[in-house]
Write a structure and sequence with these properties.
- By secondary structure, this protein is an alpha+beta fold.
- It has one domain: HIT family, subunit A (2-Layer Sandwich).
- Helix content is 19%, strand content 21%.
- The chain contains 2 helices and 5 strands.
- A 5-stranded antiparallel beta sheet has the order 1-2-3-5-4, with helices on one face.
- Strand 1 and strand 2 form a beta hairpin.
- It is globular.
- The termini are far apart.
Length: 121
């Protein structure tokens, strides 16, 4: 990884920045969001830096699939799988992506309401 590709998530994955790491394997890392919006709010991140969903290549499919299977595992461990939870991946500016390193938010532990507010016409 070169300096231009560095993100805060890269440093968390390498454990250069402290975080509450819940899971880590050769493909993905999972840690708590520092600004949670619900009782459970964790980030599931591929260890390989992939800036956006639009940058996924065929060789990234295993990591993308692992993100989903690990989300299920963590939801069960957090005790939110029975009532349900939300998985969110933002992409680029209009998707409100803040860190240019793909990450999936796993959010739950309370009713989350509608996904988006409809605009008035």
């Amino acid at each position: 990884m070169n300096v231009a590709e560095e993100t805060i998530f890269s440093k968390i994955i390498r454990r250069e920045i402290p975080s509450e790491m819940l899971y880590q394997d050769e493909l993905v890392s999972v840690f708590r969001d520092i600004n949670p919006v619900a009782p459970t709010h964790v980030l599931i991140v591929p260890n390989k830096l992939i800036p956006t969903v639009d940058d996924i290549e065929a060789e990234d499919e295993a990591a993308m699939g692992r993100m989903l299977s690990v989300a299920k595992k963590i939801a069960r461990e957090e005790g939110i799988s029975e009532d349900g939870y939300r998985l969110i991946i933002n992409c680029k500016e209009h998707g409100n992506q803040e860190v240019m390193h793909i990450h999936m938010h796993l959010v739950g532990g309370r009713p989350l309401g509608g996904m988006l507010k409809r605009e008035s016409s």
